[in-house]
Amino acid sequence: MTIRAVIYGVGPIGQLIARVAFSRGFDIVGAIDIDPQKVGKDLGEAIGLGKTLGIRIESNADKALKDAKPDVVLHSTGSFFDRIYPQIMKAIRAGADVVSTCETLAWPWYRYPDLAELVDNYARSRDVTVLGAGVNPGFVFDALPAVLSVTLTRLDKITVIRSLDASKRRYSFQKKIGLGMMPSQFTDALGRGEITAHVGFAESVLLLANITGLKLDRVEEGQEALIAERNYETQYFKIEPGQVKGVVGHGSGFINGKEVVRVELRACVGCEDFEEVRLEGDPPITWRSTGTPGDPATAAVIVNLIPRVLNARPGLITLKDLINYSYTA
Predict the structure, then answer these.
(1) Which sign, positive or negative, has the C-alpha torsion 32, 35, 41, 46?
(2) For the segment 165-204, what is each residue's pLDDT rounded down to a tens digit?
C-alpha cells in the first residue's frame, strides 16, 4: 500500500526530507509552510527536483491536511515543543501520524510535561502516533549508544562525544551557534533565545537512560562559546581572534551524585568530524566513527522511521518504544 505523506515545513531539513521521501516512493500529497517566498510554489521546484509535482505549498495547514488526507505528516518547523505543538495538534486532528524533527519532542516530559500529556491524550483519542526523532536527539546521543550497550553484562557509565566541523554546515546552523559574535553577545543572545546553539542535551540523556533502564535522579546541561585564537572564514562568516568560532556543550545524568550518562557536543570551525561512544562496565567498549552528516542523516532517520511509526501504538511515543535491543538495568 502506498503511504501518503504531507511535508510540514519546507525549510532546509524539510526539503531534504521531501527529496528522500520522494526518492523512496512515498506518495507526497501535500506541503505546508508559512514563508511567503515558498507559499504557492510547486513543491518539486521548491525542493530542487527540477520538475513539478503538482503539489502546491500551502500556508493554511488545516485546509491542506483536510484536502490531502495523509497517513503521516513529516514535520520540521522548530526545536521547542511549546511553540510547535499547535501544528502537531492540527496533524492529529486530521487523523495523521506524525514524525517530527523537533528536538524537545524526543523526550517532551522533561520541559513540557503538561503539553506532553495533552498531545498524548489527543493522539490516543484519534488513534494516531506522534514521535520526535532525528540525529541529535534521536541517534548519536541516544539510540546508537543504547544499541551498543546490548553487549555489556554490567553498565557503569555511558559517555558520547560528537565533534563536527561547523564550516561544512548550512548557514542556519552556523548562525545558531553564534559564529562571529563576541563572547558577551553570544551569552546574551543565547539567554534571550535569539540563538539556540544545540537543543536537546537533557532530552538525549533522559531518552538514553530510559532505553537502558538507568534510573536517573538528576539531569544537568549547559553550553558555552569556543573563542577563535586566529582568523577563520566559512562560506557565510568571517571570524576574527576573540570572536566565537563554535560551541561546546554537554548533558549529564546522575544517580546518587555519580555521573552515569554524559553526552558532549563540540561544533566549531576546523573541529574534527567524529563520534565516540565509551561504555564503562563489563566488558568496556569504545566505538568511534568518522562523523555522521547531520542534515541528510536527519532526513534519513525521519523517512526510515515512517513504517515503524505507522505500526506503533497510538499516542505520544519515543524511540524507547521502538528500540528493544539494548542493555537493561
Answers:
(1) negative
(2) 999 999 999 999 999 999 999 999 999 999 999 999 999 9
* Sign of CA pseudo-dihedral 208, 13, 312, 32: positive
What span, in angstroms and rounded, lies between the C-alpha atoms of 83 and 96?
A: 20
- Residue with the three cell numbers 539531569: 219
Which pLDDT does position 266 carry in this prediction?
97
pLDDT tens readout for residues 17-41: 999 999 999 999 999 999 999 999 9
Nearest to 305 by CA among 104, 132, 120: 132
Domain made up of 143-291: CATH architecture = 2-Layer Sandwich (3.30)
Residue 134 sits at the vertex; the CA angle it makes with 9 and 317, to the nearest 5 degrees, is 95
At 1, is the pLDDT very low, low, confident or very high (cuts 50, 70, 90)?
Answer: confident
Q: Does domain 4-133+298-321 have CATH number 1.10.230.10?
A: no
Against a cut of 0.70, is the pTM above it?
Answer: yes
Question: Residue 289: beta bridge partners?
Answer: 275
**Does 329 score more than 90 pLDDT?**
no
End-to-end, the C-alpha distance of the chain in Å comes to: 39
The backbone torsions φ and ψ at residue 225, rounded to the nearest 5 degrees and listed phi first, read -75, 150
**Strand-strand pairing, 274-282 and 154-165:** antiparallel
Distance, CA of 6 to CA of 27 (rounded, Å)? 9
Q: Where are the domains of the chain?
A: 4-133+298-321, 143-291
Pairing of strands 154-165, 218-227: unpaired
**Which set of grid coordinates corresponds to residue 139?**
541517534
